[in-house]
Amino acid sequence: MTLPADRRRAVLRTSLGVGVATGAYGVSFGALATASGLDVLQACALSLLAFSGASQFAFVGVVSGGGPLLSGTATSVLLGARNGFYGLRIAEILRVRGARRLAAAQLTIDESTAVAVAQPEEAAARLGFWSTGLSIYVLWNLATLVGALGGTAMGDPATWGLDAAAPAAFLALVAPRLQGRRPVLVAVVAAVLALALVPVSPAGVPVMAGALLAVTGAVLVRASTTSAGA
Amino acid sequence: MSVWGAILLTSAGVYLLKLAGLLVPPRALEPPRVRLAATLLPVALLAALVAVQTLSDGRSLTVDARLAGVAAGGLALLLRAPFLVVVAVAAGTAALLRAIA
After folding, report:
1. Per the UniProt record, which residue ranges are transmembrane (chain B) (predicted)?
2. Burial of A192 by CB count in 10 Å (0-12 exposed, 13-18 middle, 19+ buried)?
């Protein structure tokens, strides 16, 4: 089924808007990455290959905080797990195989999924996924390069407040997800547990351990309340 | 492990999880507990990252200009500022405090 021209334009407009808005903050990733010790090529490689904002910020954040590289990787990959769940929906919408599936996987992120699932028709959902994903991919990578080149010229990141920029970026990423009592409670418990673990565990461990404990707790509480209610 | 090794390992892990979603049958998502854990995991990780990166130096808990910066960023969020503005407000506040302190 083909999409009427006006719907096509509407979907493309949404996709490009989201692409520009999201792509632009690749600048802050690039700057943060090089200011915290990665070189320009390494910052660009993360954007090209990992291509998942929160995971990239997490990797840079943990590594620059003096954490071991492996816990940066682990935190980053765990954060990327949500993309796998988006993929389940995207697979139904796109029904792609072969090389197209490999490309679709790389573009499966928060924003492309959000635009795709918001469309009422399947043709619009497919167009929305590809156009949003591709425009973010191109702009995010260009913006990373610009930010990385700028970041290298900046010197000590603390002078520019960049060490406050990273947690603020995470705050902006988590805020839209804090709807309802359960996510808020899990967020608070994860934050408190992580802080409590800082003095007693190696750098990089508190974030992962705090988050996993909070989520496990929430899942167990839910299991016991549903079985009690049944 | 070298930085490059960690970058490649991270990228491979993040990509394979994306691909896994496109490969596994949708039934895998059905158990409500799996669904719940999937929604809550990013919330928990991001919240823990905010806390640790605002209030610790990696070894112990500390309060410094970062807290004021992140609080200012939070205020900008409440005022519905876009992402880049939130980040810039946080960085600017922390930088300003350090410059005058």
Report:
1. 6-24, 36-55, 75-97
2. middle
User: Considering only CB atoms, which chain A residues are within 8 Å of B86?
Assistant: 168-169, 171-172
CA nearest to B20 within chain A? A84
Higher pLDDT, B27 or A92: A92
Helix A69-94 crosses helix B3-23 at what angle (to 10 degrees)? 30
Nearest CA among A88, A125, A87 for reference residue A109: A87
Chunked in runs of 10, what are the mean pLDDT values of chain A (230 residues)?
87 87 85 90 97 92 80 90 87 90 95 87 94 95 94 76 85 90 96 95 83 93 69
* CA B31 – CA B16 distance, rounded (Å): 22
- Coil, strand or helix at A45: helix
Q: Does B51 touch chain A (CB under 8 A)?
A: yes
